[in-house]
Design goal:
Layout lengths: L2 H24 L5 H7 L3 H4 L1 H7 L6 E5 L18 E2 L13 H10 L1 E3 L3 E4 L6 E6 L4 H13 L4 E4 L7 H12 L3 E5 L20 E6 L17 E4 L3 E5 L3 E5 L2 H18 L5 H10 L20 H6 L33 H30 L1
Parallel strand pairs: 1-5, 1-6, 2-5, 6-7, 7-8, 8-9
Antiparallel strand pairs: 3-4, 10-11
Helix pairs in contact: 1-11, 5-8, 6-7, 8-9
Length: about 375
């Protein structure tokens, strides 16, 4: 094995080690009776006060995702049969867990005496739609959700653009449905845009941390419309388990829950007017006015739900292609402490760094001996 091959192997091992650490960090189970305390975003968003105004009763949220485990103790009574559009049957088991987590953030019921995940709109219903790994079937899923009464559709997944997907998005908007999508988790604008979030008809959501700073993982660019908490968001997982996740998916689910509260409180509002409430009341952060990191601003849940006549926002509810402002370096999503995930990843990096040093010494010795 040449030195270049050895260095390449070590580099790939480092990347793999960090990836494994991230997966382990987001899949760690947590005790159900402590989960509610971990929903830190309740305070800043004034969720308890908002739920005195509306809990999302009567609203169906279409969830295009990996499914939703309706047997979870926090989701009993919240999940409709939904659809698996490939075989045209009720939605199947959520083997990956992502959809179950999003369902909980949107409409979790919790359980017992204040235990488990309580969603933003705990009286709304979740309609799980599968699959999302093909643009044609994702498009069919959007259509099925619209035809079966969804007033809000959560699109926290990433794929490429296609004519069929764009057509379904436009049909949903024409049918007066609020579409909420994720900005993506690459943390930059260097990669290709992620759809359906990049479609102008979709309200696209980025993620902030506990300090209202853009999370490192949150994509930025002209597609971002609004931001919401997306760091350390607890959610249910299959088999009555829980996970703590970071990403724009959690932020998207929070905004979908907010849209459900508004649609329940103001049933006569159009989808465009619901989006206008969400965007016109958003808190301006970062560069003044719209920018490529915070979009129009950060979700103000209580204001969006209670404001009498929101002023027109400084940008369209779902901007087409606003001028990009100069890029500023995104800030860390740390809340002041060192998460266990970081310690695990750092330990792995140090271990592999030591391995690299040994390999380099051996290679140097071989060259000297030669």
């Amino acid at each position: 094995m040449t030195l270049a091959e050895i260095l390449g192997w070590v580099r790939r091992a480092l990347v793999g080690a960090v990836a494994v650490a991230l997966v382990l960090g987001t899949a760690t189970p947590a005790r159900a009776d402590r989960i509610r305390d971990q929903q830190w975003y309740w305070g800043p968003l004034k969720v308890a006060q908002a739920q005195k105004v509306s809990k999302g009763a009567g609203i169906i949220v279409g969830l295009l995702d990996t499914g939703a485990d309706g047997t979870h103790q926090d989701l009993r009574g919240a999940v409709l049969p939904g659809r698996q559009v490939v075989e045209n049957r009720p939605a199947g088991t959520d083997f990956e867990g992502h959809g179950t987590g999003m369902a909980g953030v949107i409409a979790g019921r919790g359980h017992g005496d204040g235990a488990g995940v309580l969603g933003i709109a705990p009286a709304a219903k979740i309609m799980p739609i599968q699959p999302i790994n093909d643009t044609y079937f994702a498009a069919q899923g959007i259509r099925w959700a619209v035809q079966h009464g969804a007033k809000v559709i959560n699109l926290a997944f990433a794929t490429h653009a296609s004519e069929s997907l764009q057509a379904a998005v436009r049909e949903a908007v024409a049918a007066d449905v609020v579409l909420v999508g994720s900005a993506g988790n690459d943390g930059d604008t260097d990669n290709e845009l992620e759809y359906p979030g990049a479609y102008p008809e979709v309200l696209t959501v980025g993620a902030v941390d506990r300090k209202n700073k853009i999370a490192k993982i949150s994509n930025h660019g002209k597609q971002v419309d609004i931001v919401a908490p997306g760091v350390d968001i607890p959610g249910p997982a299959p088999d009555d388990k829980y996970v703590l996740g970071t990403g724009t998916s959690g932020a998207t689910a929070i905004v979908s829950g907010a849209a459900a509260l508004i649609r329940a409180k103001y049933p006569d509002l159009s989808a465009a007017e619901v989006v206008e409430r969400l965007t016109s009341t958003a808190i301006d952060r970062g560069a003044k006015g719209r920018d490529d990191y915070y979009g129009i601003g950060q979700l103000d849940l209580l204001a969006a739900l209670t404001v009498a006549q929101p002023e027109a926002s400084s940008a369209p509810a779902v901007p087409d292609a606003p001028a990009a402002l100069p890029r500023a370096a995104p800030t860390d999503d740390s809340d002041g402490g060192i998460p266990p995930l970081v310690l695990v990843a750092a330990g792995l990096v140090l271990l592999l760094g030591a391995l690299l040093a040994v390999v380099l010494l051996l290679a140097r010795s071989r060259r000297s001996a030669g």
